[in-house]
Amino acid sequence: MNFTRWSARLPGTQRRAAARAEHTVTITDRRSEGSVPAARAEQLTDDPPPVPAVDELPVREVLDRVPALVALVHGIDHRLAYVNDAYTAAFGPRPCGEPAAEALPELRDLGLMPLLDQAQRSGKPRTLKSRKAPDGRHYTFTCTPVAEDTGEGAGSAVLIFATDVTDHAEAAERLRASERRQRETAVTLQRSLLPQELEQPDDLRIAATYQPGGTEAAVGGDWYDVITLGGGRTALVIGDVMGRGVRAAAVMGQLRTAVRAYARLDLPPHEVLNLLDGLATEIDANQIATCVYAVHDPNEGRLVYASAGHLPILVRDDQGHVQRADEPTGPPLGTGGWMHASGSIPLGPGSTAVLYTDGLVERRDEDLDEGIASLERALAGATGTPQVVCDRLVRSAGVTADHDDDVAVLVLQHPARTGADSELFRNAALELLGGVEAAPRARAFASGVLTSWRFPPDLHDLGVLATSELVANSLQHGIPPMRLRLRRTDRRLIIEVTDGDDHLPRRRRAEPGDESGRGIAIVATIASNWGSRRTPGGGKAVWCEFVLPST
User: Fold this and answer.
1) Is the dihedral of CA 306, 359, 373, 416 positive or negative?
2) Which residue from 435, 493, 491 is spatially nearest to 463, judged by alpha carbons?
3) pLDDT digit string (tens) for 129-143?
């Protein structure tokens, strides 16, 4: 290939050539007029020797010394015209005159042939960034079309220029590896802070799933929890800490621990969120979180909840109709200064409720309400066990392994008991009217109910004794209205007494001369568990549980 021809067609070549010719004439004229020989003139002057113009440099010599890889191909089949020394050092000698697909197999394997065609057809440079070549180095290839005059008409050639970007590629890979390690750390932390095994209440069937965002998305702070409160009641929690990475997961862990602690106080949902709001501000004033805290009481058939900026609970009844939980919804946790309020939604036998985070329904190209509406339609047709429903909702939302956000879903079902199963779930209640005669009437009622439920004699006697002590405590310290409620499940017997006084009892040591103070101590000794809570309409409930023997 004639490199002089290529340089002659570069922009500005003719102008520089004319200037060089004029400069040469001027020097010749001055030498003919001067009396000092040229050699002596060079010795007497302090001017540096003249620097050759770019046009005077041999093109091949320049390209041979360029550290980048250079190759030149021409014609339709891209026949090789030239490779520089750097190219030869990287890939070995290459035969000139052969098509590039055969003479430059390394470029063919890197998929550079279509790029040569595009550059030749369009007349515009094309670039292929950071490809790993057979020599183990990474190169960025630029294919630049060059017009040539073949004497038989205009043709075209392509100059291939490969820059070594190995250092950049390795740095980028190290960065990606570091990000992968950080993400794996965050995922591990996130999963370790989530419940390893969900508590399974007597009256509910529950399943949950958590799926972190794809490899390009940092892990968020989604969480869920199930907390048995005693007395047959269950707390259900789902939340989402704003932000990504280890920090969000750590804040999530602190909030989840705090929720479990506050739940033990058996407070109404809105009071739990009020406490949690203050704690979230103390943990990190710049971090906010959304959360729903709900309590299910099987005797009431409702889900009482409070929401801090979270998405609404969805409930499908036994007829397949889906209802969206209404307000109240307060601002997210960590904003401070807001008094949350509780609401309720029916959750009778045969119903299914879904709590979820925004990763399940939020899409960049779709309104949030549309995502929730799509979830409602999916829930209306989702049947089966809670785990089956959970999986179907995730699939219907199009959540895959490369999803751009975390997803947490909590599904709970209140089964409709029929047949022999219904015999294992029974309720009985008695209004405690009158004065001191209410105590023997309560004992007789409890004895008759426990006998009809065919409890063994020892459990029957313990149940009657616990009933007597709880009723006596309520008669002495409480005010009307008073009520006794007995409930059995397939796992336990629950005895509960409610009254109109909101003073909660506590266990204390009674002195030998004391005439009271032993009732709660006796209950705490003979029962598997006991507790008390304030009721929403005022007053309190005191309860105890006995674990049924396994059959």
Assistant:
1) negative
2) 493
3) 988 888 889 999 999
Terminal alpha carbon distance of the chain: 95
Burial of 338 (0-12, 13-18, 19+ CB in 10 A): middle
Rounded Cα–Cα distance for residues 316 and 338 (Å): 31
Rounded distance between C-alpha atoms, residue 347 and residue 49, angstroms: 97
Q: pTM of this prediction? A: 0.70
Phi, psi of 257 (to 5 degrees): -65, -40
Cβ pair 185, 376 in contact under 8 A: no
CB proximity list for 250: less than 8 A, separation 6 or greater: 189
Length of the chain: 551
Count CA atoms closer than 13 A to 396's CA, side-chain side.
20
* Contacting residues for 125 by C-beta, under 8 A, at least 6 apart: 119, 142, 143, 144, 145
Cβ-Cβ contacts under 8 Å for 82 (sequence gap 6 or more): 1, 60, 63, 70, 71, 72, 96
At 531 the three-state DSSP class reads strand
Strands of 242-301 (E only): list them.
289-297
Identity of residue 26: T
AA letter at 127: T
CB-CB contact of 153 with 66 (8 Å): no
Identity (one letter) of the amino acid at 108?
R
pLDDT tens track for 52-96: 665 666 777 778 788 889 999 988 889 999 999 899 988 989 889
Structure token pair of residue 89: 């050092």
The CA-CA-CA angle for residues 201, 416, 202, to 5°, reads 15
Say how far residue 493 (Cα) sits from the centre of its chain: 41
Residues 454, 457, 462, 464, CA torsion sign: positive
Nearest in space to 292 (alpha carbons), one of 278, 272, 275, 267: 272
